Amino acid sequence: MSTALKIKNISKTYGNRTVLNNVSFETYTGEVFGLLGPNGAGKTTLIKLITGLINIEEGEIEIFEKSLNKEYEEAMSYLGAIVENPEMYKYLTGRQNIMQYVRMRKNVTPERIEEVIKLVGLTNRINDKVSKYSLGMRQRLGVALALLHNPRLLILDEPTNGLDPVGIKNLRDILTNIAHKEDVCVMVSSHLMSEMELMCDRVAIINEGNVIRLDSIDNLLSVSQGHQVTFAYSTSDLEKTQHLIAENSEVQTEPDNQKLLVHVNSDNNLEIIASITAMLVKNGISVYTVSKVENQNLEEAFISITNKGGGQIV
Ligand SMILES: Nc1ncnc2c1ncn2[C@@H]1O[C@H](COP(=O)(O)OP(=O)(O)OP(=O)(O)O)[C@@H](O)[C@H]1O
Ligand SMILES: [Mg+2]
To answer: Do both 159 and 249 map to the same domain?
Structure first.
């Protein structure tokens, strides 16, 4: 694992509007990194700065330790990116598009071309005209083009836009494969939290130009819960169950439909639940089911973070 991208104190203003405010973070090879934020948060602006589409005015960006300002060409040699719509010739086939692209790049071997076509799952359709491709196929051809020169940092702005759930899953598998098996750093942006949760190892949550959270998906999900674990009890007498459990100061109870929710704030939550269950049985209550309630997903965490967030840097 090595540092792929280093963003240092990047700020960007348009007129008197601050679009990015002192953004700093690093991303690493072998990870899928998500840039997550609502519309207008500054995701595309940051990606345009990293990919050299707009000039850096304040701060510094390094790609594999090469400064974009000072060593632009070297920095760019590590980068593959799709920002907005990748350029493709619709009247050419997928393969002809690839060959067109290869002519502009150095060092793309015939083996790499075949490898990339296979990687994005276009083997059967590569000789069809792009005009006959579905959106998902065009998207995958775009990923193939961006991967041809073996970039170690791949950046895709909203890659799942417009894809159906199967297309999203396919792309997700392709991108996690590239990151985890080819040791590439894959950076994707999205405003869809549920999808980032499945695709990314770490995310930066960006809101109004500020990075308000930077953490692994695992941590984000558990932090959003405050390490609280919830179990749902179904018993022969819920009222008595609640009354008995309320005597245990380590948990909070909350009726929910035909169940009683028990919130535990402790690392040994399983032991606590086991002893509560034994206590209930001892008091003559039939315990029908005890089930763990799944954590809230990142979408809920994201909404609660951005609602509370207001530019706070964590
Ligand atoms: N060329 C420009 N001139 C002026 N303002 C701009 C320009 N480009 C972007 N902005 C503003 O910068 C802010 C961030 O825009 P940006 O496109 O980076 O957001 P985003 O996070 O990519 O949003 P989305 O999810 O909608 O793609 C917005 O307020 C936008 O209006
Ligand atoms: Mg955008």
So the answer is: no
